[in-house]
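Handout, page 2. Input:
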Amino acid sequence: MTKFNKLSLPTAVLIAITVLGGFLFASEVIKQKSIEKQQENKLIQEQEERCRKDATQQKVNMEVNNPNMSFYSFEYHYNFNTKMCILAYIENRSFWDKGNDYAVIDLFTNEEIYKETIKDGGVFKRGEVKQELNKIANLYFYQKEKRVP
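Output:
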């Protein structure tokens, strides 16, 4: 019986230290992940703000450079999966040059991702054109990874 008591005390202390160490390690890992998540959220917020500013500036530039054109749809979204600031817009051409252009660009790189001209778009087809643009824009707004051309 004495041998059992002599061995069980050091064993119990060793087990207690191991369990306590495991809890401390686990709590530090959880704390580190929480800090990393907060930093990631802050970075996403900064990128969303940059995207908003870039989109606002882009709209001003387009309106100044194209005074005869009107933009009746102008939407942007920061996609945190692809790290892209996607701008989708419909450009209504002049009365004489009937039609609409709609485009999707990445504002961070100024890369044109998608562009199409629709002839005979006019005022009456705006709703249809906008629905079509929304479908295409949403593909880029919410895609999971960057597409390789």
